[in-house]
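Page header: ASSEMBLY MODEL / two components / 402 residues total.
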Amino acid sequence: MGDRERRMVFVTVGTTCFDALVKKVDSPQVKEALWQKGYTDLFIQMGRGTYAPSKYSRIQVSGDATLKVDHFTFSSSIADYIREASLVISHAGSGSIFETLRLGKPLIVVVNEDLMDNHQIELAEELAERKHLLCARPQTLEETIQGMDLETLLAYIPGDAKPVVALINKFLGFPAD
Amino acid sequence: MGLDAFAAACCAIPVLASLLAVRFAYVLCRSGLPPTRPRAAGLRCLIVLGSGGHTAEMMNIITELQKDRFTPRYYVAALTDSMSLQKAQVYEKSLIQGEGEKIIKNAQFMQIYRSREVGQSYITSIATTLLAVLHALWLIIRIRPQVIFCNGPGTCIPLCASAFLLKVLGLGWSSIFYIESIARVKKLSLSGLLLYKLRISDQFFVQWTQLQQKYPRAQYAGRLM
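Prediction written out in full:
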């Protein structure tokens, strides 16, 4: 097979430390699964984590083929990476989730099970139930990638603050616009 | 003389205590009811910002507010969180663009001590909590907000409690709006639960219908994100 079209996977953990996810994405199994699905590049935003994935290395997968991998800690232009990506793998923070959904990118949310008060799982599962994203754990990420059919995902229609603001105005006695 | 003062105190304390109790009950009943007179424009607003997701949701509300009604705006964030205030500053600057080199005069930005940082020991927490509560009270007395917007970060609890105290003491009246974060689908956050159960918030919004069913005094008016 010839040169593939560039298809980038962007992994983001926001401002958290989520080494379990970074390690998992850096594993040969997950890289292999991504390659099989047609992705060519892997960008990892690793946040406060200490595990540094293989920077600039071309990982040998499936014979001659190579998946390009790169990583960085933080960036002020996360949105640019998401825009560029064909698939986003994210931690369960609501900021990252809604930024990705708003930009209309396929999203796999990986829940961090090491967090103490893990309410974030609620949001990821609710949105997965509504088919706006796929929800995984670090240990199930490989199977999720292998079994995913991105065509089944539904676009998320962004919310609107107007009804809330209208009720606030009404409560305060302001006339309706 | 000393005895007279003592006797006076003996009479005064129960009277004061019952007056306070009556006032407390009145404030509790009055909260959640709309103001009696139609508002003249220009309400002093206190906007409590939190970390990443919270601030994004709050800024969506602020963007929709009629700026002539909700002015001036005081933004408050935790001392350890400079990102949130930056976002608010960028937004407030965008409002006055096109009017030359005007300074932001309808908005102020302030920071507040946090009661407890992640991983802090419980013994030092007592001291820092006390400091945070006093700082919150000081901010509320200085700002005397007429409207408070908050959506979950822990810093909103001492601020809302201080505002409620001022209501009970008759030193000011504020309408407190709490909008639970979109991240809360099945359970309220600790801040949300406290403000709901203690009836400190005048209006309580949630962003998922399943939460509204669990907490009937809450309102559902769609999602912010």
